[in-house]
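Problem statement: downstream parser choked on a complex file, so we are re-checking the raw output for the LTNE7NMQ run. The parser issue turned out to be on our end (a line-ending mismatch), but while we're here, posting the original submission so the record is complete.
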Amino acid sequence: MSDPAKRPLRIGLAGLGTVGAGVVKMVQTHAELIAARAGRPLSIVAVSARSRAKDRGVDLSAYAWEDDAVALARRADVDVFVEVMGGENGPAKAGTQAAIAAGKHVVTANKALLARHGQALAEAAEAAGVALRYEAAVAGGIPVIKALGEGLAGNGITRVMGVMNGTCNYILTEMEKTGADYADVLADAQRLGYAEADPSFDVGGIDAAHKLALLSALAFGTKVDFDGVAIEGIERITLPDIEQAADMGYRIKLLGVARMNADGLEQRMQPCLVPLSSPVGQLDGVTNAVVIEGDFIKGVTLQGPGAGEGPTASAILGDLIDIARGLNVPAFGQPAASLKPAARSSGGTAAAWYIRILLRDAPGMLARVATVLGGHEISINMMRQYGHEGPGAPVVIVTHPADTARMQSALTEIDGLEVSLAAPVALRIETL
Ligand SMILES: NC(=O)C1=CN([C@@H]2O[C@H](COP(=O)(O)OP(=O)(O)OC[C@H]3O[C@@H](n4cnc5c(N)ncnc54)[C@H](O)[C@@H]3O)[C@@H](O)[C@H]2O)C=CC1
Ligand SMILES: N[C@@H](CC=O)C(=O)O
Ligand code: NA
């Protein structure tokens, strides 16, 4: 019998959409290069998706077909189950569980699955002695899981932050560049294969929060705590917000921050203003960036394409080549049983805020708002009125640093003023 470490690594590929088709293309395009680097060939043996008939622009004729992803996961001729279907339950979860139970390695791009079930799946994979790899799931083509879990493993990590959703960054930067409508730019992101099957996961900040929760576990040795992420999406950001931020030297980014404070883990994903001149402020289109701060490394910034066929396939192939080489590192950087439950921090550091309000246009209205802010000990750094909007006057206020709790109660009070014509929007200003 041939040496199993030398024979082809046999892949069962579940999902043939943007990511799955990319994986097929890369395996076919780079068969020789991959075999040379992995020490043995990678061979797709069987595939599965919803529709067998659909033309995906790739040649699938050499592969067996399975209607059922769970059956694919259990096939005797499959060594690695590649899950690129999506969904936090359904066949993604059942197939992954079945693969692990059958002693097969798993590579997945599915952050929703891992944000919910990562701990249980990592425990099961370790018990079965198989790898559970997910580089594609976080920041697409950027090798951030490898960087955090391997290259930086000797550091005490102090903070992880960044832009982790390509769709949102694409929308925010395209709106700024072209003045295009939010809905049109979102439709473009869907057409380009960046968005989730349910794009409200992207624009609602949920997809990026899934990713942040996985990075937190890796960075801080805590169990994945997706429900501990404070999430706010970009749905309420308007073109005037983007323009006014630019006018003040900032750009709006959906920014994730994970930090271990004295009272526990702070995890937040929210639109923030960042300096236009900062590396994060410069990110355009589908580009993501993750900043990792550690006690010995100080800071590392990784930047690259966060979504799309090629970058995501690249991450999947990186994981497959590691498996072919016989590497198996714990999914969350240390044995799953040793991960600690994450105590949640009661609040983050204070920050300056950008506030947008729509006030009835009459004398004395601004003074009412200033009084509310003053009552919450929030002092104003700058205040500007931007023309008129129907019966209202859009007003932008930039404050001096204030903590989130104080800002939230001030906003609730402003919202309750009869002069306030729309719910106020407040965005943190991160100095990075
Ligand atoms: N598109 C991207 O840029 C990235 C996507 N991901 C993740 O990769 C996964 C796949 O994403 P895409 O390829 O964009 O999705 P997609 O919608 O383009 O493709 C999904 C594929 O899975 C199959 N599928 C879905 N549900 C199924 C079910 N219940 N039974 C059988 N087959 C099913 C579909 O038929 C399709 O072939 C998701 O978990 C997504 O979050 C991760 C990083 C980047
Ligand atoms: N929908 C995601 C895809 C990659 O994870 C994104 O836009 O970043
Ligand atoms: Na990645």
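For whoever reads this later: The pocket of NAI (ligand 1) is lined by residues 15-20, 49-50, 69, 84-86, 90-91, 109-110, 136-137, 140, 193-194, 196-197, 307-308, 312 (CB under 6 Å).
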